[in-house]
Amino acid sequence: MALLDRMAGRIQFRKFMAGGHPMTFPNTFLKTVPVIAALVLAQPAPVMANEDGHGEEHAENLLRMSQNQRRQNGVETLRIERIALAEEISAPGEVGLDLYKTSQATPRISAQVITRHARLGDEVTSNAPLVTLSSVDMASAQGDLIVTAREWDRVKKLGRKVVSDRRYVEAQVAAQQARAKVLAFGMTKVAADKLVSMGDASKATGAFTLYAHQDGTIMRDDFVIGEIVDPGRVLFEITDERTVWVDARLSADDASVIAADAPVRILTSAGKQFSGKVLQLHHAIDETTRTLTARIEVSNTDDALHAGQFVTAFIEAGKTDPVLAVPQEAITLMNGGNHVFVLKDNTLMPEPVLTGATRGDWVEIKSGLKAGDEVATSQVFLLKSLILKSSIGDAH
To answer: For the segment 102-135, what is each residue's pLDDT rounded down to a tens digit?
Structure first.
């Protein structure tokens, strides 16, 4: 046995009698196997009830695994204590755009679409060109800008000693108004400056370009080349999808115990889970559904949530009294019941447990464990596989 204990990088499966003492077997009954995740075959290790109450089921299996071996295989453990779990209220919800991080590109005057610079689904940066339009009204305004800018430049050169105060002010105001008009119609300051500096009336074509107001993804693209679009028509909608909103519907009673900034879990129909917080609670009850809306801000950095998607929101509404609990990842199904792998003296043993309520990522343990027990919280499937494969080996 000492020789086997010295074999680095190997997991040992030992047979025990009642009381936890190893039985003496020929070497053929003792196996060591390399530490290869999910490929390790183990020898079963029957055990009777021991002194600390664990292992009351007869013929249970043990896995002996050193700290170094656990680290190599990614097996993490946690010493459990009584903790207060979150009380949650569940509510149906729908994903929507974060309107605080959404903008639209719309013309301010009637215009014709000349050139498209971006398409639906494109990722754009702030000030990126989106679409070029042309307008008769803009052409007229651009012509006025060139004329008034020239006149103002001439009057300035003459100076107040040559021209009257009235003419000086009128020329200045006319140039400023012409400039303000093209900017109001949708021309950029840079484009207006360039038009004035060229001073070429043939450049007053009425063309102007709409630019992105922010970084983000184009979520809406609603026009065709050559189309005449009215003022206010949404041509592009851009949003930053790294955060989204979820509008959850709550009864008035449930809403009364929800606070702003309360933590929220969002669960999709595919079982994916996301974290968020309550952004705001509406104060008006929907006349049709008789519910209040809780708006939830959710991080969506992996782009897994999309507008229009239905989800379930679990909103924290307080804390329970302290209970014994383990992370959900620690629980595995064996022999038709829930089990948790308990670590003691570098030995992992599956213990049957009776579970209670699930609160977020934690599951209440009603019986089977006690405070201070150290349990495996990762690679539990691997540990279960080792037990099952070794049992199959013994059957032959």
So the answer is: 999 999 999 999 999 999 999 999 999 999 999 9
CATH no. for residue 56?
2.40.420.20
Q: Which residues contact 34 (CB under 8 A, 6 or more apart)?
A: 9, 10, 40
Rounded distance between C-alpha atoms, residue 121 and residue 216, angstroms: 10
d(CA 123, CA 238): 9
Q: What is the CA radius of gyration of the chain?
A: 36
Do 143 and 164 reside in the same domain of the chain?
A: yes
Name the band, by pLDDT with cuts 50, 70 and 90, for residue 391.
Answer: low
Residues 123 and 231 in one domain: yes
CA angle 256, 262, 263 (to 5 degrees): 135
Q: How many CB atoms lie within 10 A of CB 241?
A: 20
**DSSP secondary structure letter of residue 371:** T
Q: Could you tell me which residues are beta bridge partners of residue 16?
A: 22
For the chain, the distance separating the N- and C-terminal CA atoms, rounded to the nearest angstrom, is: 24
Q: How far apart are CA 209 and CA 360, in angstroms?
A: 50
Q: In the chain, how many domains are there? A: 3
In whole angstroms, give the CA distance from residue 54 to residue 374.
12
Q: Closest Cα partner for 49 from 60, 37, 40, 65? A: 60
**Residues 6 or more apart from 304 whose CB is under 8 A from it?**
268, 272, 274
Domain that residue 340 falls in: 2-84+322-395
0.70 surpassed by pTM: no
Assess contact for 87 and 309: CB atoms under 8 A.
no
How many CB atoms neighbour CB 348 within 10 A?
A: 25
Give the DSSP H/E element, type plus range, for residue 388. Answer: helix 380-395
Burial of 21 (0-12, 13-18, 19+ CB in 10 A): exposed
Report yes or no: 241 and 297 within 8 Å, Cβ to Cβ: no
Type and span of the H or E element at 4 = helix 2-5
* Tens digits of residue pLDDT in 252-302: 989 988 888 999 999 999 989 999 999 999 989 988 989 999 999 999 999
Distance CA 59, CA 69 (A): 25
Q: Are residues 117 and 185 in the same domain?
A: yes
